[in-house]
Amino acid sequence: MDVDPRRLVVLHTVRQAGGIAAAARLLGVSPSAVSQTVRRLEQEAGVPLLDRAEGRAELTRAGLALAAHGGRIADELAAAARELTDTGPETVEGPVVIGSVLAVLTTLVARTTASLVERCPDLRPQLRETSAPDGLRALRQGALDVLLITGDQEHRPVPPPDCGLRILAREHYRVGVPGAWGDPPAGAAELAAVAWIGAPEGSARAWAHARLAAEIGLPDRPTAHLATNWSAVAAMVRAGLGAVVLPDSVASRTPGLTLLPLPVPGMFETLALYRLTARGGTPAPTAAVLTRLAEVTLEVAEELSRAGLLESEPVVRKTLV
């Protein structure tokens, strides 16, 4: 039997995560990509590896056996990565300054910073709230080691010199209207007649709104209202002021917002930018922060998914190397 060991690792992840969708989040790919990988592995092995009866996705006996081999391969790869990066808790020490925009600070970065203090006692993380422009300037000047911002997939910022960029998560946008409106607008014509809550020029939400407007033919006019952060959006929604475009994870948690089955072109991203060493490597304290950020991003995605708050599965980049 000639099988691709990478597919064995994917099968192990399906067993570890408890399903296709959860495995996709762990691996940072789409559920369809995981399903396709398992089917190819079944072709190579010549036996069914998943029991798909009645919508289930449970491993068969053969699947469990191959998944165990995949687990051992994954363990060896993880051990090799640790040896290469040498960033175990016992070796990480010193200060690391983390800047974050408010949206990411409240959902990911504060939680990450607190857990780093426990995990790496000799690491001294220092958290700073910042805006994206100020944060990029501070990163360029060396005042920050790591910067967390949000962005739009089609308008991703260019990292400053001697800096790297990692995508922590990617998710769809959603359209929502205040529940106080009663029956939601039906179709583009009715949406064109309502007020909208816009976003600052150049922001991810503004780009998404512009693409939606072009897609469904919204009038070429300024939005009626402008909200910079989620708390302002939530207040405007509660007051029934307008429709809005938001990332899926935010839209699903906005009280009083009725979500519409209207696709929005493009993807929303959570990004980590960080300073590199003179040789282009990642300093050990920064690597520890990036690794924990990826883990917390996955934890939050799992929590939202279990609560049934996500319309579609986000793509979470757990591996940052």
Short description:
Residues 3-60 form the HTH lysR-type domain. By secondary structure, the chain is of the alpha/beta class. The protein is built from eleven helices and twelve strands.
Explain this structure to me?
It is a single chain. By secondary structure, the protein is of the alpha/beta class. It folds into 3 domains: 5-85, Arc Repressor Mutant, subunit A (Orthogonal Bundle); 94-164 and 272-300, Periplasmic binding protein-like II (D-Maltodextrin-Binding Protein, domain 2); 171-267, D-Maltodextrin-Binding Protein, domain 2 (3-Layer(aba) Sandwich), CATH 3.40.190.10. Helix content is 45%, strand content 20%. The chain contains 11 helices and 12 strands. It has helices at 5-17, 20-27, 31-45, 61-85, 102-119, 132-141, 188-192, 204-216, 230-238, 248-251, 284-306; strands spanning 50-51, 58-59, 94-100, 123-129, 146-152, 163-178, 197-198, 225-226, 244-247, 257-260, 267-275, 315-316. The strands form 3 sheets. Strands 3, 4, 5, 6, 9, 10, 11 and 12 form an 8-stranded mixed β-sheet that branches. One of its GO terms (molecular function) is DNA-binding transcription factor activity. Keywords: DNA-binding, Transcription, Transcription regulation.
User: For the record, what CATH class of the largest domain applies?
Assistant: Alpha Beta
Order of helices and strands: HHHEEHEHEHEEHEHEHEHEEHE
Proportion of beta-strand residues: 15-25%
Secondary structural class = alpha/beta
Termini separation (Å)? 31 Å
- Number of separate structural domains: 3
Report the CATH architecture of the largest domain: 3-Layer(aba) Sandwich
User: Which residues sit in consecutive blocks of at least 5 with pLDDT less than 50?
Assistant: 86-90
Mean of pLDDT: 87
User: What form results from the Cα inertia axes?
Assistant: globular
**Share of helix, binned:** 40-55%
Examine the coordinates and then state which fold CATH places here, giving the name of the CATH topology of the largest domain.
D-Maltodextrin-Binding Protein, domain 2
- Contiguous helical run count: 11
Number of strands: 12
Give the biggest beta sheet.
Answer: 8 strands, mixed
Keywords: DNA-binding, Transcription, Transcription regulation
GO molecular function, one term: DNA binding
Domain HTH lysR-type: 3-60
Organism: Streptomyces griseoviridis
